[in-house]
Specification:
Chain lengths: ~230, ~110
């Protein structure tokens, strides 16, 4: 795990660095005497874990975490037990180590951080595997490959579904439920019992309908909140 | 009065003399400046700065195994936050500073 250390006290930084060197999975990228310097570094570098002091002049560790948009995991290293309750309100806080930090307690915190890192990796891998690029449909005994990103709309038509792509429509003997299972959630959304849309292809939304290409697709009341959640609204 | 010791530093160094030497060097370099800053803040009666100085220095107390002095420094720091400068607490704190200063000359 790539980590940084933020502490205004040199002795505290040296102690954390010494402890990090005794744990093989940790790679210290940089040390900072104040949190403001670290913000710039975080904008330009990938960091998995921050060892962060709380009590620092002018800009405290708690002020710092409030500025982070996509915070990495954080382990507080502090002499003050009184901020523990507040600290654990943030889900990216892994642990709260009281100074002077001893190796067994430090190792315990790292095991916790590694477990969280593993979970994060598994989630990312799962999401990536969901993002397959294509699938095959059986039309008149021919298996035809359809690029997922080219699909803008899938419409239910009795025992068939009509898959509309950028350049062609495919009528396939299947159901919306079956095809929905094959589609990545990140790209497609069922907006009505008869329609699945590619959310990236939406042109506009008006009341209870969505314009995709030249198709006006109804949006059922129950699916509208999920659709609105997916939009990057200003 | 309790005496400073290197038990924590030795535990951290795990038998590596170079690590032990680095840790001792850092404490020897950093402590005099922190002590100086504390007395300057005290002179200007700047409670926030005195509190910050005490907060930083008390970590050195715990590193040098001065558990009782650390607890007293905690109380001193807490009172400073309330803008109370307790003379007994100040005296105890400064006695510990002196004890550390003398100890650092011996290591």
């Amino acid at each position: 795990m790539n980590c940084i250390i933020i502490d205004d006290e040199q002795m505290a930084r040296v102690i954390v660095r010494t402890l990090c060197n005794q744990v093989t999975s940790l790679n210290i990228l940089q040390e900072f005497t104040n949190a403001i310097e670290a913000i710039k570094f975080l904008n330009e570098n990938h960091v998995d874990l921050i060892f962060l002091d709380i009590h620092m002049p002018n800009f405290s560790g708690l002020d710092f975490i409030k500025t982070l948009k996509d915070p990495p995991k954080i382990i507080f290293t502090t002499s003050d037990p009184k901020f523990a309750m507040e600290a654990f309100e943030y889900d990216f806080i892994v642990d709260y180590l009281l100074k002077p930090i001893e190796l067994p307690r430090f190792e315990k915190a790292i095991v916790k951080a590694e477990k969280l890192q593993l979970i994060k990796t598994e989630i990312t891998t799962k999401k990536d595997s969901e993002l397959k690029n294509d699938f095959y449909v059986n039309i008149d005994r021919r298996l035809i490959k359809i690029d997922l990103s080219s699909i803008y709309l899938i419409e239910a038509k009795g025992d068939y579904i009509n898959i509309k792509t950028e350049d062609k429509n495919y009528v396939v003997h299947s159901t919306l439920k079956k095809i929905e299972e094959k589609l990545p959630d990140s790209l497609f959304l069922k907006v009505h019992r008869s329609y699945i849309i590619n959310v990236k292809k939406i042109i506009d939304i008006e009341d209870n309908s969505v314009l995709i290409k030249k198709d006006v697709v109804p949006v059922s009341r129950s699916n509208r909140p999920e659709l609105m959640k997916r939009l990057d609204l200003l | 009065m309790e005496k400073p010791n290197l038990l924590y530093i030795e535990q951290l160094a795990r038998g590596d003399d170079s690590i032990k030497a680095t840790l001792i060097d850092v404490i020897k370099n950093e402590f005099p400046d922190e002590k100086k800053e504390y007395y300057q803040s005290l002179k200007s009666k700047d409670f926030k700065r005195i509190e910050d100085n005490v907060h930083r220095i008390k970590h050195k107390f715990s590193i040098l195994g001065l558990e009782k002095s650390y607890n007293k420094a905690n109380a001193f720091e807490h009172n400073l936050r309330e803008h109370i400068l307790n003379l007994k607490e100040e005296q105890d704190f400064e006695e510990t500073l002196l004890s550390i200063t003398e100890y650092l000359k011996t290591i």
